[in-house]
């Protein structure tokens, strides 16, 4: 019963979060919470960079059979994911979207990176939540099976978040 409740909660979160982000992106009149919110993309990029690093470290640790340290590192990466989400929502709640100003081939590359990042971020959320849950309840067989898909997607989403940021950062006002 508790397991069903937890998985149902994961399913709900996996739908509510993307819907909430889509709604926030569509809000025309943004509330003003201060100039500090304009710095959030830089913070978000830092979080994505650190998450990417922790994901690679976590992989190395588990390959070396250092489960406890792996658990701590992956919990830190998971926590950063939650922090990323809070800052991302806060930024898009309070600031208009920034348009990419590049032209030619770099524009196509940027949109490929951005669109693949967005699409895979929708896919990775329920995978990461489930993988974390299975590790938490010590169902390591299901955890390992799921992580084979979740890990490379999560790493890709983290890295492409940084790439997209680096490409659009000159256009922030």
Automatic annotation (TrEMBL):
Alphabetical list of InterPro entries matching this protein: DUF420 (IPR007352)
Record keywords: Membrane, Transmembrane, Transmembrane helix
The UniProt record lists the keyword Transmembrane helix: yes
Top-rank taxon, per record: Bacteria
Sequence intervals crossing the membrane: 7-27, 39-61, 73-91, 111-137, 149-168
UniProt KW Membrane keyword: yes
PANTHER family in alphabetical order: DUF420 DOMAIN-CONTAINING PROTEIN (PTHR37692:SF1), HYPOTHETICAL MEMBRANE SPANNING PROTEIN (PTHR37692)
UniProt protein name: DUF420 domain-containing protein
């Amino acid at each position: 019963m508790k397991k069903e409740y937890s998985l149902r909660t994961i399913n709900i979160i996996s739908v509510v979060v993307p819907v909430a982000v889509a709604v926030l992106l569509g809000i025309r009149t943004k509330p003003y919470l201060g100039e500090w919110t304009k710095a959030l993309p830089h913070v978000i990029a830092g979080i994505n960079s650190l998450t990417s690093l922790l994901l690679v470290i976590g992989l190395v640790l588990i390959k070396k059979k250092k489960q406890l340290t792996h658990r701590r590192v992956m919990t830190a990466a998971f926590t950063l994911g939650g922090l990323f989400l809070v800052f991302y929502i806060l930024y898009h709640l309070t600031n208009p979207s920034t348009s990419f100003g590049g032209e030619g081939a770099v524009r196509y590359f940027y949109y490929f990176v951005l669109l693949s990042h967005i699409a895979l971020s929708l896919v990775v959320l329920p995978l990461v939540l489930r993988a974390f849950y299975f590790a938490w309840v010590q169902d390591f067989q299901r955890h390992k099976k799921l992580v084979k898909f979740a890990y490379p997607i999560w790493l890709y989403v983290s890295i492409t978040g940084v790439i997209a940021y680096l490409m659009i950062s000159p256009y922030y006002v």
